[in-house]
Design goal:
The complex is a heterodimer of chains A (160) and B (246). With 160 residues, chain A is mostly helical. Helix content of chain A is 56%, strand content 5%. Classes of the chains: A mainly alpha (160), B alpha/beta (246).
Chain lengths: 160, 246
């Protein structure tokens, strides 16, 4: 498999900006916070049962005709912090272009390269790749949550 | 042949006309000095040639418009500097070699050696004079046919500049063209083959050095005559001031 050289997707001579670093913290926070899904899931599951007794004597019985809250309602808003990550990636793109005008005018060199996409690839490349990765992470976790929803919800209570 | 036809550049929103209907043809092997007062339009004209500024008119290189296909035939050294400050000299060499197929590594090495520039130190840590030298070294090593230089030696000492002019002319191929903007007219006079004078965005004079020599006039005299410079202006003003005070 061909290894992607990520250095080609960042401005020449520039390290990761704090936009990328803060962006990663935001994304990780967003993904961790999305795990609150499980609290909602178990609350919704609890609502399917009648509970009697206390402590070790608790008896749970499934309510007749109980229907589980749809998955979309349980997972709703769980990834609401992810768009903030995209905002940081947008700021990163802006900062990459600005980098070529700070200290020196390397923008003059970049704009007269025979490869006219070089500048744009270096400014847009990493933020776009990271946005795609964040979408994949959201998709992966959504699938995981859906599997958990299917596993924990009694078959007869599934709304589908 | 680099040809500019009716080039006009108006800056928005101020509406300032920086270059006004300039037409110019520059052939292979010429060393053209572009002169004019601050704000005359030299930098704007050079940036227009490189496509760094949008302008009205037509700019062609051997009859073709300047696009990504032929842009590598033009190089640019500017006093604003266009290198990457955190990158070393050799990293720049690699970057240029990757993007400019005709990059002349031997010329680069020879010039770095001659000016004793460190190859593995970030260019941003160079002195101002070294930065200027490095900027010019990259421009002349790019493998371009037309080397455009905008005040490349601002901040270099006189010996350094003198060295550079000599080395530059010594290493250039016969078909390599230099377009040099500078205020140091007397200094570059022995090295240029043609002088183009700009004033308020228009070409005020365009003469080959050979023609000037035939007429027996130096560059400074030509410039003063073209700009209608009145040598007695200062003396007159001082006299008037003295009379007012008296």
């Amino acid at each position: 498999m061909t290894k992607i050289d990520m250095r080609r997707y960042r401005p020449v001579g520039r390290e990761d900006s704090y936009y990328i670093q803060i962006g990663w913290v935001v994304l990780l926070t967003a993904l961790v916070m999305s795990m609150e899904f499980f609290i909602r899931l178990f609350d919704a599951l609890d609502a399917l049962y009648d509970t009697r007794g206390f402590g070790t004597q608790v008896v749970r019985t499934l309510k007749a005709g109980a229907v589980m809250v749809p998955f979309s309602a349980v997972v709703k808003d769980r990834f609401m912090l992810v768009p903030f990550f995209w905002v940081f990636m947008g700021l990163e793109v802006w900062d990459c272009y600005d980098y070529h005008k700070k200290a020196t005018k390397s923008i003059y060199l970049m704009r007269r390269l025979p490869d006219k996409w070089e500048l744009h690839r270096r400014c847009w490349g990493r933020p776009l790749i990271y946005c795609i990765l964040s979408l994949l992470a959201v998709a992966g976790m959504t699938v995981l949550y859906f599997l958990a929803y299917l596993v924990f919800t009694p078959w007869e209570c599934l709304p589908y | 042949m680099l040809e500019l036809k009716n080039i006009r550049k108006v800056y928005r929103p101020s509406g300032k006309v920086a270059v006004d209907n300039v037409s110019l043809s520059i052939g292979p092997g010429e060393v053209v000095g572009l002169f004019g007062e601050n704000g005359a339009g030299k930098t704007t004209l050079m940036k227009s040639m490189l496509g760094l500024l949008r302008c009205e008119g037509e700019i062609t290189l051997d009859g073709e418009p300047i696009t990504t296909k032929n842009i590598a035939r033009l190089s640019f050294a500017t006093s604003e500097h266009s290198f990457f400050p955190t990158l070393t000299g050799d990293a720049h060499r690699d970057f240029y070699a990757e993007h400019f197929p005709k990059f002349d590594g031997k010329r680069y090495e020879a010039l770095m050696e001659f000016f004793s520039l460190p190859k593995n130190k970030p260019v941003g840590k160079f002195s101002t004079g070294q930065k200027n030298q490095f900027e010019v070294i990259l421009a002349v090593s790019q493998g371009a046919d037309y080397i455009i230089m905008d005040e490349p030696f601002a901040g270099n000492d006189v010996f350094n500049r003198e060295d550079f002019y000599k080395v530059l002319l010594g290493i250039l191929r016969d078909d390599e063209t230099i377009i040099l903007s500078t205020h140091l007219m007397e200094e570059v006079e022995p090295f240029i083959s043609r002088a183009v004078l700009l004033h308020k965005g228009k070409i005020l004079g365009d003469e080959s050095m050979e023609a000037l020599q035939d007429q027996g006039i130096g560059l400074m005299d030509y410039v003063k005559a073209t700009y209608n410079y009145r040598a007695d202006r200062v003396a007159k003003a001082l006299n008037e001031l003295r009379n007012e005070e008296g």
